[in-house]
Amino acid sequence: MTNDSSGSVFADPHYAACYDAFFPAKERDDFRFYLPRVMAARSVLDVGCGTGVLLHDARAAGHTGRLVGLDPAEGMLTRARRRTDVEWVLGDLRSVSFDDPFDLVVMTGHAFQELVTDEELRAALAAVRTALADGGHFAFETRNPAARGWEHWESEYALSVPDPTGLPGLVRLSIHAETPVTGDVVHSVTRLTGPAWPGLVSSRSALRFLDAAAVTSFLAEAGLEVVERYGDFDRSPLTAASPEIVTVARAVPRAGTDVTGRS
Q1: Do residue 107 and residue 224 come from a single domain?
Q2: Same domain flag for 47 and 96
């Protein structure tokens, strides 16, 4: 069975449970970076929220404002909806809109890299700017292309966990990049085996690796200015060896408004 990124395995709640087991929230450096920002914002949109763990954690930590999770995979949202005090929306930035602007938009788990073409990226960033209040912030990360992290995926993502739903046996995941890599788009294959599936499940995906200058340029086109940039989630400076390009951008107030969005 073979699926692309919109295929049935990503709509499968069992896969979503496995995802949380493979990448537990307590071990995620990105969540440790983003959670304090979520807690400091009155209203937050998590784009590509997956199983919703970041917003679950924010609510559990006492966030009392508006929390909205957006994801195109029904299986992920099925798991996210275990918590009912967060708004969960099926779709993506180009298919939904929101009446009230947010103070913070986040994209975790390298979801930014799934915007492969210039057209997709410009449309998504325009939607982010529309979703943000003037002066609001957009926080996200993309892997640093200079570090060539895809060369290590085969060893980094050779994972196995006991089936998290209680089925007997292990669920195994592996990811490898297709070579040679040319340009800034890396194609990869993810393979899954486990007791919930009768055979190998594989999915192909494409991720775009932009450098910091290109990211800044696309943001500026959308009315977003970089205010913070790091090379990893520990807030270390960005260098050629840094694994990540972690960016916080501010929504530039539109002409005729102040930073609060008042005209």
Answers
A1: yes
A2: yes
Pair 178, 55 in one domain:
no
Do 25 and 128 fall into the same domain? yes
Q: Which of 65, 64, 57, 66 is nearest to 36 (CA)?
A: 57
147-189 per-position pLDDT tens digit: 999 999 999 999 999 999 999 999 999 999 999 999 999 999 9
The residue whose two tokens read 């967060």 is: 86
What span, in angstroms and rounded, lies between the C-alpha atoms of 49 and 156?
A: 23
Are 209 and 142 in contact by the 8 Å Cβ rule? The answer is yes
The DSSP secondary-structure symbol of 26 reads: G
For 229-249, write each residue's pLDDT tens digit: 999 999 999 999 999 999 999
Global pTM reads 0.91
Q: Which domain holds residue 229?
A: 2-145+209-251
Classify residue 108: in a domain, yes or no: yes
Q: What separation, in Å, do the N-terminal and C-terminal C-alpha atoms of the chain show? A: 55
CA dihedral for 120, 54, 98, 15, sign (positive or negative)? positive
Q: Tens digits of per-residue pLDDT, 20-69? A: 999 999 999 999 999 999 999 999 999 999 999 999 999 999 999 999 99
Residues 116, 246, single domain; the answer is: yes
Q: Which pair of structure tokens corresponds to residue 82?
A: 């275990």
Backbone angles phi, psi at 178, to 5 degrees: -85, 130
Q: From the DSSP assignment, how many helices (H) and strands (E) are in the chain?
A: 7, 12
Q: Tokens 């099925």, residue?
A: 78
